[in-house]
């Protein structure tokens, strides 16, 4: 399960030998191993993160944001689905909180590593934002005008299956406070049921 969201990276280690030839008389200091470049944590001038009544930290507009504006990119370590699942399993039972976001069939973004403020945007059943995936990158766009001081939110649509443990699913209760809150951050329909419907449609077309 994941935040539209969840899920090895092959790490290319660059080594510097620092070797010198035998003909060299003077000792030459070993070359320093190049340090990996740190990924820039890019935040948006439109928003800031602070405590939220919904859950933990939230993200708030600090200037007027117009409908259609690109607010921020969802950043973090880019890993495979297998690695993401492994991390999720190790995490164990908790409050259902996750920073994992599916960016493509191959890539999951773990905003718990090198992430930015986008990871703090809470779920909302009456969202003012939506996620847009372009070339395996995830962006948060405004779907209506947002006033300064207003908390940002988008529908997580967390994937789940009808065979999942109800006790585990209960961890994903929604506290957004919207008038038409559906009470959960989970997608409206389980993935296995969606797959069944797709198969049924394909069979119907073949007839």
From TrEMBL:
UniProt-listed GO biological process terms: methylation
Cellular localization per UniProt: Chromosome
Predominant cellular place of this UniProt entry's protein: cytoplasm
Biased composition (Basic residues): 1-40
Domain Post-SET, chain residue ranges per copy: 170-186
Keyword Transferase tagged: yes
Keywords, ordered alphabetically: Chromosome, Methyltransferase, S-adenosyl-L-methionine, Transferase
One GO CC annotation: chromosome
Signal sequence extent: none
Ranges of residues in domain SET: 45-157
Compositionally biased residues, Basic and acidic residues: 185-198
A GO molecular function held by the record: methyltransferase activity
Region named Disordered: 1-47, 185-207
PROSITE patterns for this protein: POST_SET, SET
A Pfam family reported for this protein in Swiss-Prot or TrEMBL: SET
Name assigned to this protein: SET domain-containing protein-lysine N-methyltransferase
Organism: Steroidobacter agaridevorans
